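Lab notebook, entry 425. We have the chain sequence and a SMILES string for magnesium ion, and the next step in the workflow is to get a structural model of the bound complex before anyone spends time on docking refinements. Request logged below.

Task: model protein plus magnesium ion, output structure tokens.
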Amino acid sequence: MLGWFKKKKRVKEQEKETPEITLPDESAGNPSQSQLEPSGETQSDTPPSPQVSVTDEESASQFSTAPEMDAHKQRLDKEAEDIDTTGSTGETEETESSEKMESTPEETALPEEKTGFFSRLTSKLSKTRESIVYQMDALFLGKKKIDADLLDNFEELLITSDIGVSTSAELIDYARKKVKRNELDDPAALKRFIKEKMGAYIRNASKPAELIMPDKGPFVIMVVGVNGVGKTTTIGKIAHKLMNAGQKVLLVAGDTFRAAAVSQLKIWGERNGVEVVSKAEGADPSSVAFDAMTRAVDGNFDVVLVDTAGRLHTQSNLMEELKKIKRVIGKKLKGAPHEVLLVIDATTGQNGISQAKLFDAAVDITGIALTKLDGTAKGGIVFNISKDMNIPIRFIGIGEKIEDLRDFEPDEFIAALFGEPIANT
Ligand SMILES: Nc1nc2c(ncn2[C@@H]2O[C@H](COP(=O)(O)OP(=O)(O)OP(=O)(O)O)[C@@H](O)[C@H]2O)c(=O)[nH]1
Ligand SMILES: [Mg+2]
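Result returned:
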């Protein structure tokens, strides 16, 4: 998301000739991560994590017995825990991982903060990794050839890990055809093939959607989703990222259904030091949005984040209200909202797909934020959304803290999910 947002700033800056804000240069080993994701962790001090040291050679297909596999799994889990608890200072991390990091030039070339964030992502995705990758390894354990039974069991495994019935069937279909043509013969090759295919799904879907950047005036993001998915929290986290990138951010309390919703957004406003436009509980959210657009233009804000309700008396009420808010924003500011961001709670699994379809029909979703990927085994939904919805995932939420929101990067996600070094993807 910040990728396309930065584009807008660059256009603005070129027009102005004298840029007010220096945005990170993407060409320099992605320093934007460090600038946009400051956290409690000491990023630049973070040594390469032990997780990064898990190599292909160590993949489960190399284990000949179940106890060996278990030991491997326990070690990965222990390392993930260590990353969480030791943060950036563990000396033991230094020894093991830095040795392995030296083994390939690409890995040593990675900036330290990149590996630190990557380790954190790897550790936060551990439950999903357990439900997909470890199960896959266990299924393939000791198998020398791919047969029909193996493929059937594999399909079942994919379905149960929230990858979705049609996506799983398609993956297995591809695999069956390859086996028939003798292009795939052993389980390790099958695992590599599935990893590639899964990567292709999310890479295709995460291509930035065409966005019409405003020539002047603020960039408006309307945030929608059912109740409790993490809309307000995600707004707070996005505001934090944008503030750190030097943007002038305005928050809009468009959820007037509950008084607590307004105060929750105000707390995020205070935390980030940003202004919040709000009215009393029960006020018409469209009128809040209307006033906010005036304020955004008058106050020369760069980005406006509009919070909305997740629950009204009935579902159709909610959709009608969201349509009205969107219309009013567009009337006041031509071309706005520039992004309608749907927040989906990853722990709801397949239900998230139905939500996406419902909201898309009402307000034309342009991007998705997938929250609560930490601590859930249902991260397979990423592939399902990518394949079924064709709407880019902009962000993933991996915790409740202000810095626990990441730009969604397919290669990084796949590598973290498979517990492999990012440079290998
Ligand atoms: N573990 C985890 N919790 C999260 C994440 N994102 C949000 N939450 C938690 O989810 C709960 C609901 O978040 P809210 O931001 O209030 O959700 P909402 O969609 O605004 O809810 P309503 O306003 O009731 O519609 C809070 O306890 C958040 O801390 C995440 O990425 N990981
Ligand atoms: Mg809320």
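Notes for the group: The two ends are 22 Å apart (CA to CA). Worth checking against the assay data. The CA atoms of residues 256 and 281 lie 5 Å apart.
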